[in-house]
Amino acid sequence: MSEIDVKKYMRGQDYPIINHEPLPKYRMADQDYGMTIGVAVTKKERVYVCWVGGGDNADAYFLLAYSDDKGKTFSEPILAIDPHDESLGMKRCTIVGTLFVDPDNRLFLFFNQNMEHFDGASSDWFIRCDNPDAEKPTWTDPQYIAPGCTLNKPTILSNGEWVLPVSLWQRFLIRPPFEDCFHELDLERMANVYVSKDQGATWTRRGGVSFIDSLFDEHMMVELSDHRLWMLGRTATHGLLESYSPDFGKSWSAPGVAKPQSVSARYHLRTLKSGNLLLIKHGRILEQAAPDRRELTAFLSKDDGATWSKGFVLDERFEISYPDSDQTEDGTIYISYDYNRALDGEITLARLREEDILAGKPVSEGSYLQKVAIKPGKLIK
Questions:
Q1: Would you call 103 exposed, middle or buried from its count of C-beta atoms within 10 A (0-12, 13-18, 19+)?
Q2: Which of 88, 224, 242, 256 gets the most CB atoms within 10 Å of its CB?
Q3: Are 42 and 133 in contact (CB under 8 A)?
Q4: Residues 155, 163 contacting (CB under 8 angstroms)
């Protein structure tokens, strides 16, 4: 298939369709896979989780549910994003995205759309819910951002701008028949930074970092006390690499090996309401290899990442993946991740405060660990 044929084939098939009535087709009793996308908490402490059904492959699609009792029980899926269409002759999937609640209590769902697992371009989109605490949440139409995909939340900077991580994966990840397509995008195959000056309505590319041996990037950024941006990115052989920007994402330092290290897997980094940094990763703070993605651990830093707390092991089991977090107005932290995606498919929650992380055990009222939020019905044993 030539590049011209491929683009013609994809054109007109790329506007996402959002399923606002996903039942009974996507009821949990019929699900057989669970890979977490993320967690978001509204001002009334409604907890949203989004996850991937189908598989970590071209069968992937998104499901969204919520809890009104602080994560104890969850609804059936209230929304599905499943772009598969048998008439296309190949699989089209949604596999990468994130959830984000902004200061105005608007819920954003970022998601990509792709032919096969990766077609060389992908497309990054978002929908927004302006009434996420309502009995019947409503959503905007999908809005296109850029080629690529967003796996981690945007960061709101001190100057009011929002910065969004958008990764455009490297050519070695492109699947047939697209392996020789979209060369015009090759200069932006990196950990890109997109900026919004209108609270997420529109996004513009500002810069990016090309990490050595990049593996999906999965980059995250925080603003330090001196207003530099600090970015971490996932690589195949060098663990976590880091880069700094002195100008809110326009230019970046040459990547170097980061002090915090991790096995090749998604990690999570954010600034808490206290100003402290939260890092969630596998193993000890300097440990690059945690076999089988064991010992998911939370760390706090009070000095822009120069030093970190001892670490609180959230889950010691193997096959724990893809942590994400959100924080309520009163400082409560919700952490989501998945356990044993294909065999157990559990989307799991922890509910904590900073004092729990520092104590190394739950000490605050209402805190919990390893709470199963979502369980695919076909995997219940």
A1: exposed
A2: 242
A3: yes
A4: yes
